[in-house]
Amino acid sequence: MSNRLPDNFLWGGATAANQCEGAYLEGGKGLSIADVEMGSQAGVRREIHDEIHPDSYYPSHEAIDFYHHYKEDIRLFAEMGFKCYRMSIAWTRIFPNGDDEEPNEEGLAFYDRVFDELHKYGIEPVVTLHHYEMPLHLVKKYGSWRSRQLVDFAVRYAKAVFERYKDKVKYWLTFNEINALVVSPRPWHQAGIIYREDENEADVKLQAAHHQLLASALTVKAGHEINPDFRIGCMLIYHVSYPRTCRPEDQIISREKTLPQFYFGDVQVRGYYSNVCRQYQEMCGGHVQMEPGDEEILRQGTVDFIGFSYYFSTAESADPTAEVVGNVAKGGRNPYLQITKWGWQIDPLGLRTALDQLYDRYQVPLFIVENGMGAIDTVEEDGSIHDSYRIQYLREHISAMKDAVLIDHVDLMGYCPWGCIDLVSAGTGEMRKRYGFIYVDKDDEGNGTLKRSRKDSFYWYKKVIASGGEDLSD
């Protein structure tokens, strides 16, 4: 049996507009929810403002300035041999307020230039429509995804970019980590929502989720009508939950931990609210208000594939005193696994398990669109960056991924490690938490030259791609 992945396998890397583009008001762009989040400094949590404060530091405003460096960055991606590049379109570059009647031509033209540059090197764009950067105006005027009006605005935005790029982009994702809306206790990043004291949080998040699911379904339907060759997927946070022990109660807790993942997967792939969805609604203590025709919309707008992020696994226990680790999707500590500085458990075999679970359940193609390890990198006196820890992490995860494809017969489209170039952390606003193969000279306070440098992992990943994943050696 060959140890190579298929020639059409999409090797690449992933970023998001609000974490790399910068130029936050350039080219007619409006403010997004990311643009009013301060950076985290000295362990202080990020603050969210309702407008720009002149004396505050907002990491998204410059980020790594991909807006002006995209040619250099894409050239480096091509040097590594990327077959695809997963990126997002900033909604506020196309519709600055979100509810505008007409799109912003300068924003559309920017992404034309990016896509043309990618195609120059034979790199396929994989484009996310909503990646933690919805227009701030929609939050202030409509209450964000609480309002059903946002469905119409999101579909208008999707149709505009589908029409514009119908001959330049084939692969699309609707909402990045759509289940973050219900997993996170403060779903600002994903949906621009801060709960009010006078409302039932469960009702709000389930109704907002329903509106996003409707928007996703209508987006898929519109995309297929505009170009039947489009392949449009959903995107989930996915982490594997093990029972902490063989205690039966731990098995029940472990299953319940998966419900927020399958809640969105079932609707977007199967086209209806399943028994799992009903159970999750009851567990939350919330309700979904359906309108006539909603069920038909969901049935007609099922996705072509599942994209997902995988970073770590958890071990769930019925013991309320068990240690909890992780980030947005927190869970129990597993004593058999190493843990990163940011509390993420390193579990390469969990990626194989995730692939098996998703493919066994849904039987549609899968796409790993985020995977990686945040770490503090050191630049040596000669400018080199020796990130053997990153190489080890990726080697072990790619090996597990290959076993899922070659042994378990999982239909996998591609692999895009997160933050293929250093960028701003979504959760903390830091730069020191680095994922990339390419180092960007910038610190947590916004200082630096923005110079790009190749890390050891850059050359290693280039070799991995060239060998079809066969050569994983140092």
Write up this protein.
This protein is of the alpha/beta class and 474 residues long. It has a single domain (10-466), classed as Glycosidases (TIM Barrel, Alpha-Beta Barrel), CATH 3.20.20.80. Helices cover 38% and strands 13% of the residues. It contains 15 helices and 16 strands. The chain has helices at 17-20, 66-80, 91-94, 105-120, 136-142, 149-164, 180-183, 188-191, 201-226, 248-270, 275-284, 294-300, 348-362, 388-406, 456-466; strands at 10-14, 84-88, 124-130, 171-175, 231-237, 241-243, 305-309, 314-316, 324-325, 331-332, 338-339, 345-346, 366-370, 412-415, 438-440, 452-454. The strands form 5 sheets. An 8-stranded parallel beta barrel has the order 1-2-3-4-5-7-13-14, surrounded by 4 helices. The chain has a two-stranded parallel ribbon with strand order 6-8. A hairpin with a 5-residue loop joins β9 and β10 (331-332). The longest helix has 26 residues, at 201-226. The radius of gyration is 21 Å and the shape is globular.
